[in-house]
Amino acid sequence: MEESVKDVAPRPTEVPMVEQDVVRQMRVLAEAGWGVKAIAREVGVSRNTVRRYLRHGRAAEVQVRPEARALDAAARERALALWASTAEGNAVVVQALLTQEGHAASVRTVQRAVEGRRQQVRAAQVASVRFDTAPGRQMQVDFGEKKVLLGGVLVKVYLLVAVLSHSRRLFVRAFLNQRGDDWREGIAAAFVHFGGVPLEVLGDNARALVLGRDRDTATVRFHPAYAAFCRDWDVTPRACGPYRARTKGKTESGVKYVKRNALAGRTFESFAGLQAHLAAWMVEADARVHGTTHETPVARFERDEKTALRALPLRALPRREQRLKRRVAHDALVDVDTIRYSVPHRLVREHVEVLVGDADVRIFHGGVEVARHIRGREPHARIIKAEHWQGLWRQQSKEVSGVASAAAPSALNALGRSLADYERAIAGGVKRGAA
């Protein structure tokens, strides 16, 4: 069925652009008396194109481009003021505000007007001045994470890295999480590794360390547990400014160094093997020539920083006392960072509180301790006490291969029979069937 003319939408006509020299040639040929068909064949365009350019005369020869819009000096100053205040660095908002004030300009025009100021602000944000921290003054800490093959299983490992700001000595320890207790245990282990305590610890704004900031007074609200930990160790906590990770650039670089050098693509048989590798690697890292100081960190530490650190506490301070809420699974186990601990099976589906200490794990139900285990270190391990599962299975028979134990006679003896009688009957039935 043929379509009617009315049903067919008109197609837009593409108008080709013709060079000015060609247009002039068409006019000269037309003045010389050439026809439209001959001119079209001569200059290589269609007859309609020749007719259109000849019909419009010289107006078709000149293409007038609109002038590029620009802000005058007053509007430009206003745009810069809005960009730095109300618009908070957003050129789209500046354009909308200028339009409301009667200054017509596109977003691109505004962007060109504020580009210089934008570059100045960006340079000020990323620029930094390197300074040498006094010996014993500061230790920087940070967490990184990397997936590592442990015993053939890909496990996400969290790496706490601590760096003494003056000597650049480095400490690293692997964890299975990065909760507040992991931060505190890692920082305390770094103090012990370095053999002393610096004046301050600079960290980032992790929730385990920092609860918030007061912008008006520029004060930091540290997590109560972390603040108490720092009081116990007599060290001042500090946090770098938001989005200013370069403030703790030494440990930022240290995290990258650990990932790319200590771990790279290595595999380990166990989590304990990983920790042993990191302990040996730290000795190598301290003996390398540092790219900034051009000295080995251990030499710089022995000469300048070792005596500047304050002494460790005489008595061991608790590093962690992590309290977690868990629900007992159907197999009478509770999970803490992929490690599962057993509880009495009567507590299946009950809610319990798990207290993770430095060396042990205690589990409470209703305020009463119901289980205690040595703290596991290997991911996906199961720490089980057999008495917690007692009563879950039937007692196994003490008869082996049809011979009853004298201490525990079979119940068949009371009926005057034994398993041997049934074996002989079955054997006889098999022989008769075979015959």
From TrEMBL:
GO terms for molecular function: nucleic acid binding. InterPro entries: Homeodomain-like_sf, Integrase_cat-core, IstA-like_C, RNaseH-like_sf, RNaseH_sf. Coiled coil: none annotated. It comes from Corallococcus macrosporus DSM 14697. Residues 131-305 form the Integrase catalytic domain. Belongs to the transposase IS21/IS408/IS1162 family. GO terms for biological process: DNA integration. It comes from the Bacteria. This is Integrase. PANTHER family: INTEGRASE PROTEIN (PTHR35004:SF7), TRANSPOSASE RV3428C-RELATED (PTHR35004).
